[in-house]
Amino acid sequence: MSIGEGAFHILAGLLKSRSGVVLGRDKAHFLESRLLPVAARAKLPDIDALAAALLRPGSEGLAVETVEATLNNETYFYRDAAPFELLRNSVLPALRRERRAARHLRIWCAAASTGQEPYSIAMMLADDADAWAGWNVEIVATDLSRRALDRAEAGVYSQFEVQRGLPIQALLRHFDKEGGHWRLSRDIRRRVRFRQANLAQSFAHLGAFDVVLCRNVLMYFDAAAKADILARMRQMMPTDGCLLLGAAETVLGLGVDFRPDWDNRGLYRAGAADLPAVASA
Ligand SMILES: C[S@@+](CC[C@H](N)C(=O)[O-])C[C@H]1O[C@@H](n2cnc3c(N)ncnc32)[C@H](O)[C@@H]1O
Asked: Is the pTM of this model over 0.85?
């Protein structure tokens, strides 16, 4: 069965307006596989009926569930490895020198999903405890998905999840086995503050950040939305602040005030961009 043109239009429109995520017609099968269970729970026969129900008054709960079901929450500990090595060996030591008087640093994981990314940073800081003695390092982790944030806050991961990217020493040092699952230690969990935030809406209330990780989420947005989000992030960062994007993402061509660090893929410095802006809508 495939989704009718009208239903696809309604569902893609809902997703775009609520999350900024853009879905092409080639994603109809993806939509269908994610949304059939939502339709079934709502006792609707198919996706077309789900789309029709979303147009009716009082469908707010269904709309939230529909958007949640279509978000890609894929993540794992120390994803791609290199950005975390960069943080540990270069970005954070430089900021530690710059901020040595205040001893205060703020890090934001802007699409944190189920928590593996901010917890990877928290474990890194705990493992370098001597270097960070006397420091107040805040890690703020946000996501649009309430369901992902609930899982992140619990800090409980399956055997499969801890086998993806997490070194065995980190597993033994920071997790406790609970039945068939692994629970992160209280020390690591308390280092990260989770909050719901939609990148498509204002996030200025989160305050200023020295380091922003916005990885593997901008690729779902169109150029105008990417440029808007990055420009608003830039306003929250000092000129020596650093932005880390995912391997398939870039600021180039978006006309935003970040400079690529050509030696380190995925790393961008706040401050005048050295390439002309050619942002398109
Ligand atoms: C593929 S995961 C990336 C997780 C992590 N940053 C990483 O690289 O492993 C993308 C996340 O972006 C979130 N997301 C999608 N649209 C969003 C929006 N408008 N605002 C905030 N988060 C959003 C999804 O819920 C999902 O958890």
From this structure: yes
Residue entry with tokens 């992140």:
152
Residue 55 structure tokens: 């147009």
Do 5-70 and 82-270 show the same overall fold?
Answer: no
Over residues 138-155, the pLDDT tens digits come to 999 999 999 999 999 999
Given this model, what pLDDT does residue 85 score? Answer: 96
* 161 within ligand 1 shell (Cβ under 6 A): no
The span from the CA of 148 to the CA of 139, in Å, is: 17
* Fold of the CATH domain 5-70: Chemotaxis Receptor Methyltransferase Cher; domain 1 (1.10.155)
CATH no., domain 82-270: 3.40.50.150
DSSP per position, 132-197: TTT-EEEEEEEES-HHHHHHHHHTEEEHHHHHSS--HHHHHHHEEEETTEEEE-HHHHTTEEEEE-
pLDDT in tens, 190-219: 999 999 999 999 999 999 999 999 999 999
Among 68, 113, 157, 211, the mutation site with the greatest number of ligand 1 atoms within 8 A of its Cβ is 113
Measuring CA to CA, which residue among 243, 247, 279, 278 is closest to residue 261?
A: 243
**For the chain, what are the domain ranges?**
5-70, 82-270
The pLDDT, as a whole number, for residue 273 is 58
